[in-house]
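Box 3.1 A note on notation
Throughout this textbook, protein chains are presented in two layers. The first layer is the amino acid sequence; the second is a token string describing backbone geometry. Keep the layers aligned when reading.
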Amino acid sequence: MNLDAGPEPVTPFVAPAATLDAFLAVIGTRAFRFAELGLRSRDDALDAVQDAMMKMLAYRERPALEWTPLFWSILRSRIVDTQRRRTFRLRWLSFDGLKADTDGREDTIDWADGAPDPARTHEGREAYGKFAVALQTLPRRQREAFSLRVLEELDVADTARAMGCSEGSVKTHLSRARDALQKQLEDWR
């Protein structure tokens, strides 16, 4: 050690797995809500998020800046795959089965909440429920653009990469989603 050279620069060592684990822990709840809105099934949403997180383990060596758009792209693909498989199965079972599935689904969402005020908790759940129903009525691409841009706060470029489309398409889908949601939730304000 050369004393004349001054102190050696200290670079903190952060294990990639621990950093990726922290990233996945932070994003887990939001990812589950995104998947549940897309799949309308709590169990399918849990499976989709778990699969996306498992696939992210293969990318732990990638720079942390790439993890967010990569994760949302993987999760979105998993949701689309699940929707396609569900539609394919229902088509083969019976044509009436598809109608029964969409009519018979449960629209209530029971989120655990540690808020101390029951009235406030109820209002929050009611607001989220109305918002979730309004969001579910949007076309898939509009719902994805809105969720990634507004709820997840991704920038336009990352959203475009996650959705597999151009930045202009993201802006168009987002604009249409905002207009539709505003019309649907206007009376509730």
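The two ends are 67 Å apart (CA to CA). The CA atoms of residues 39 and 97 lie 17 Å apart.
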